[in-house]
Amino acid sequence: MSSKESCRSELRIAIGQLTNRCLYSASKWAAEQLVGIEQDPAKFTPSNTRFQRGSSSIRRKYRTHDITATPTAGVSYVATPVMEEDELVDADFYLLAKSYFDCREYKRAAHVLRDQIGRKSVFLRSYALYLAGEKRKEEEMIELDGPLGKSDAMNQELVSIERELSTLRKNGTVDPFCLYLYGLVLKQKGNENLARTVLVESVNSYPWNWNAWTELQSLCTTVDILNSLNLSSHWMKDFFLASTYQELRMYSESLTKYEYLLGTFGFSNYIQAQIAKAQYSLREFDQVEAIFEELLRTDPYRVEDMDMYSNVLYAKECFSALSYLAHRVFMTDKYRPESCCIIGNYYSLKGQHEKSVVYFRRALKLNKNYLSAWTLMGHEFVEMKNTPAAVDAYRRAVDIDPCDYRAWYGLGQAYEMMGMPFYALHYFKKSVFLQPNDSRLWIAMAQCYETDQLRMLDEAIKCYRRASNCNDREAIALHQLAKLHSELGRPEEAAFYYRKDLERMESEERDGPNMVEALLYLAKYYKSQKRFEEAEVYCTRLLDYTGPERETAKNLLRGMRSTQSSLPPTDVDHFTP
Amino acid sequence: MTGILKQPGAFAITPHKVSLCILLKIYAPPAQISVPFPFSSVSQHNRLGLFLLALTKSCDDILEPKLDELINQLRLVSQNWEASWLIDQLISRLSSLSSPDDLFNFFTDIRGILGGPDTGAIEDDQVILDANSNLGLFLRRCVLAFNLLPFEGVCHLLTNLGIYCKEEFSSCPPYEETSLDGSSSNLETYSEYENMDLENFVYEKVSEEIEARKEASERVPFHLHTPNALLSLVDDINVAADSASKQTDKVRVASPYEDPPSNMIQDIDSSGAVFLRSNWQVQGYLQEQADTIEKNGSAISLNGFEIILRQLQKLAPELHRVHFLSYLNGLSHDDYSAALENLHCYFDYSAGNEGFDFIPPAGGNSFGRYEIALLCLGMMHFHFGHPKLALEVLTEAVRVSQQHSNDTCLAYTLAAISNLLFENGISSTAGILGSSYSPFTSMGISLSVQQQLFVLLRGSLKRAENLKLKRLLASNHLAMAKFDLTHVQRPLLSFGPKSSLKLSTCPVNVCKELRLSSHLISDFSSESSAMTIDGAFSTTWLRNLQKPRGSLILCQENGSGNSSNVSQFCAQPTSIPGSVLQVLGSSYILRATAWELYGSTPMARINALVHTTCFADASSSSDAALAYVKLIQHLAVFKGYKEAFSALKIAEDKFLSVSKSQILLLKLQLLHEHALHRGHLKLAQKLCDELGVLASPVTGVDMELKTEASLRHARTLLAAKQFREAASVAHSLFCMCYKYNLQVENASVLLLLAEIHKKSGNAVLGLPYALASLSFCISFNLDLLKASATLTLAELWLSLGSSHATRALNLVHGAFPIILGHGGLELRSRAYIVEAKCYLCDTNFNVFEDSNLVIDSLRQASQELQLLEFHELAAEAFYLMAMIYDKLGQLEEREEAASSFQEHILALNNPQDPNDPLVSIY
């Protein structure tokens, strides 16, 4: 990895260039990382923290650096953003266009730059056109179809932009930003392969544009595709890989990458949030909560990723914290899908499912491809016993992302509720295939096999075994395994699992009917095995409990004593004093 | 709230509708004399009116025609001069609509051509649209829709109008390369059509010609802009349209129009056929495709159809049926995962509540009809050869449909289960159907599989009868007949002494069931044709019992009230729906099979012939192939292999596309048979192995094929004189048949065992097998097999010594009527030879006196065997002949017979004959 200093200088210049091209979210991201770099206390001077926005003198100064900035050993890579800027004859026009753009008057901006041929102008013009088309598309979607229906509204500008950019690319007079836009357009038109190639070209020649990386990431749906990409190495690639691994559900790889990145970007909120995301997928809720608390302290008006935080709070049933979060995001920006989702979660936790559906719907109105809102809405419908609506909502989630195991799981649950366990199995299978390390999914599937209608106990046992192997938090699997084995008349296996369950309960200091059941079974089992000493141990432990089991234990003890005393009389004689 | 279902297709104003309004305005200009300006006569004027009527009727389109398509149609409707005038007017008025205000004014103007409420006041010769007429209503709807539009809507309309016009103006240059050649020639043809006297014109010819033309130019007229996939879609709809136009033909007789030129409606129809793309029509198209897939799935290309479907889905996202079609498509191409995905997807979205005749459940039960999903899933698993899974799913379907008291679905499910039990060997159903259905298990009595099957069949039959599901009833009767044919009916519960049991099948029952199933056709023809189609495809999966597929969701039987819509697009040319014909056809196939088993070859042949001649169009391709198979087998047995193979060639060409077909099976069977007869044992073994490979490796699936393969294996081993191996194969086969209750097959396996022991010279051991086979034959009424078993028995007796010759002779003579009447070449000649041998062994027989008796039958036998190229037996016959001639002292004849004998022996020992034409087939 390049030194912190070189990262910093690269980012500084990149932010200027990105802002200059109105790629605001990319520059926001870059700026976040820039501040995220750990400050070297020795060099900590006010001048270092000052942004030098795109002034030509600075750029000229840094252009000389591109040889001195030493890349990682053995890797030759342009480390400093070298972008020879056009001689802007029309700099004034560009300024005007950029102002229009900043005021979101895209068409106007494009119009100002209509005859310009400089690369920067071409990019800004095309980008403005693209955004104008997108805006119009969104409006049309609402005008024509309502936000929840499918709509075939298209960005009308795509064709002309594509035509222009493809000629530019053929002529070889295309810059990385135009390539990024070209990739975007191609992706929207469904030409994914070319889009991937173009985006790779873009990030290879200008790696600091995070937008391009995210677009590329959305095109990497499998590991094979990811591995086939021909990416030059740069520290931005690590960010990309980390994030893509996460999307591909390779959480531990992703976490390692992020840990590594933390070495340089120690204060990056972005990385923290991403780590939280991965931890959330690994169901480490406490860690996630801690990270988010920290994040909210340093960045109190953050809305991004907060829906995940709300999910964690929901899972931990923290009513007041959730309501506090909901209030906070509501005051910050109530028309963000995340905000609506958080409020929906809150109502759901309160058991007011109708209201929560209203908010999920609002979230979907704001972004109809908002995956988790569809899934969560499905959950609400399930709670409201409206299974067809739930099925519909889940199905939409699955159509948006066929890898969303929660939605598959939800579908399975819905069908199981309707008394179609065998049909539901198909969906459970899908979901465990996508998330094989989640014990809840295995348990759900096992329970499905276990239903009265199916009674496929062997399959259920297999599923429970998988569940117990992957960190079954609620410890359902062991108990069920023991029970099923005893039902199937396999006392040894049953005893084995009861013992395991018992050990686990002891270590977690849990108590309850399961404990009694395990003790009783083990006592009886050892008695039938003629291992009276063990049996006695369990029986005496049972005596601590109240209820009928206690009596049974007493009877067992008594029975054992009598058999012991009657069977080998000689022994008894020996031991009686 | 029930989901997030969107109300599809409100009446929205579109550019096409604006054009229609413009045309209407031209048609009925305010304050004009009777024939407005451009028209020279009333009939001309009416022509345009009718054209507009047709257009307005198809205004609920998913895809509307583009402007140039409309213009083309206009050209067809009217004469040259006025056409160009009309088109000019249309285009100029369209392009004059350039601001929202123009639109406002336009729609205000339009109101003027509508007659007011006091229509009586106007003069006679003024053209005024009645506000309640079709055209008037259309106009009013347009005006209303426009007035309801918000300003955004008006802007949209304006943009769309711009695109609509621009496409027309720019259509020539960019699309020229692809379409010009096709379109120009097509225009000519259309003017040809116009000039034709269409009074007696059979409409099919038009579509045929379009078809042919399309093949030539790869383009259909009118759709210059649509992508290829949609073109084929439209093309198919053309076919659908022809039945619709037939209906209008009928209407025309009573047509109120006085002066329509005779070819005019036809004209409009032909143009009407072109823009048939309303929601109904797409559904009709889908339905037709579903039919095609079910009839002959492999005729449709997997990916090509998938592209069309994807396109359709884009156009009509609410039309979830598309998923179902892609499920069917996957099914017919054996794409398991695609089929599975699409099936689930379809039911997730539609909950079974889709289809044209979907009637929302009366009781406000918004639950969805997921039991149908289960039924379909079950049948899918069945199709892919997963009987266990299928049974699980179907059991769940039974449970769910009971839960929701969906009796129709229950009846179908039961039928599907019994079908499954028939087709697949399932040795035990215990615990599967268990508590949920059978009333007997609740009494704690376990039933055998056949008994379960019987109970199920009866249950399904009763339900079908109660619910008046005719096709299901008919096919249940067929299933019942099949059951009666192959299973001995035992009482379900027997108390007391069992001596009274009569263990035999009852052919009368079979005939009765077959007859009952055929009653269906009289039921259908007695109904009025308007009533007929209570779901033309509700039972399409039943059409072919071997390959059930589940499109019954598309139409429910009880939806007859709503189905008049269906008939509009899929009306059958006859009053009997195709599915009924198909059930009938399969009843004939079953008859043929029954007679084949009972041993009456003429009856079997006649029934197969009836099927091929009468039901060739209606039946599914596998049924048709089966009928051909039966006929060809008959040929092989009675006429020898040459004829059979030449017939096979024809059948192969005909059923080229049928995958995993019976034709391939037949070919292997014939070749194996032939190889065995010619003594080409290596080839025979190879063929036999190949036959075995065709069967699925899953236990219990493709039982028939597996039995067949191992039977043939044993026979091959027998021919190779490897008696021990042959016997062991036959033994394990017997065990398998016993396990899966294949009684009829058992009879032939036993016979084979007897044969093996006979050949190995162990006649005493063979006798019990022959007798057992005989008793099987008797209890299942397998007369021909019985005759053959009798023959074997006679041979066994004979080989025990000459003292048993009389007994053997009596046996042979007893079997002769059946053998000579119904037996094939091989059986007959075997009988002759055995007879001759009996005579020769008999000490009372005097060769010199009765030589003709023996010589005659031997000659007959040798001739027939030569036809079969059955060298071994032929050699035997000639040998016997030579011996007799030798005894008689007829040396010349003796030499002749001896040389023939030598020939056959040589051929047998040296089977490789490079000149054999039949070997090259393989």
Automatic annotation (TrEMBL), chain A:
Location of the region described as Disordered in the Swiss-Prot/TrEMBL record: 558-577
Keywords carried by this UniProt record: Cell cycle, Cell division, Mitosis, Repeat, TPR repeat, Ubl conjugation pathway
Signal peptide per UniProt: none
Repeat positions for TPR: 337-370, 371-404, 405-438
Protein name (Swiss-Prot/TrEMBL): Anaphase-promoting complex subunit 8 isoform X1
Species assigned in the record: Cicer arietinum (Chickpea)
Keyword Methyltransferase: no
Cited Gene3D superfamilies: Tetratricopeptide repeat domain
One GO location term (cellular component): anaphase-promoting complex
Domain Cdc23, first and last residues per copy: 7-276
GO terms, biological process: anaphase-promoting complex-dependent catabolic process; cell division; positive regulation of mitotic metaphase/anaphase transition; protein ubiquitination
InterPro entries (alphabetical): APC8 (IPR007192), TPR-like_helical_dom_sf (IPR011990), TPR_rpt (IPR019734)
PANTHER family for the chain: CELL DIVISION CYCLE 16,23,27, CELL DIVISION CYCLE PROTEIN 23 HOMOLOG
Lineage: Eukaryota, Viridiplantae, Streptophyta, Embryophyta, Tracheophyta
Keyword Ribonucleoprotein part of the UniProt annotation: no
Gene: LOC101510507
TrEMBL record, chain B:
Keywords, comma-separated and alphabetical: Cell cycle, Cell division, Mitosis, Ubl conjugation pathway
InterPro entries noted in UniProt: Apc5 (IPR037679), Apc5_dom (IPR026000)
Membrane-crossing segments per the record: none
Domain Anaphase-promoting complex subunit: 323-421
Highest taxon, organism lineage: Eukaryota
Protein's GO biological process: anaphase-promoting complex-dependent catabolic process; cell division; positive regulation of mitotic metaphase/anaphase transition; protein K11-linked ubiquitination
Residues making up the signal peptide according to the UniProt record: none
A GO cellular component entry from the record: anaphase-promoting complex
Protein family (similarity comment): Belongs to the APC5 family.
Protein name: Anaphase-promoting complex subunit 5
Organism of provenance: Cicer arietinum (Chickpea)
Lineage, highest ranks first: Eukaryota, Viridiplantae, Streptophyta, Embryophyta, Tracheophyta
Gene field: LOC101503464
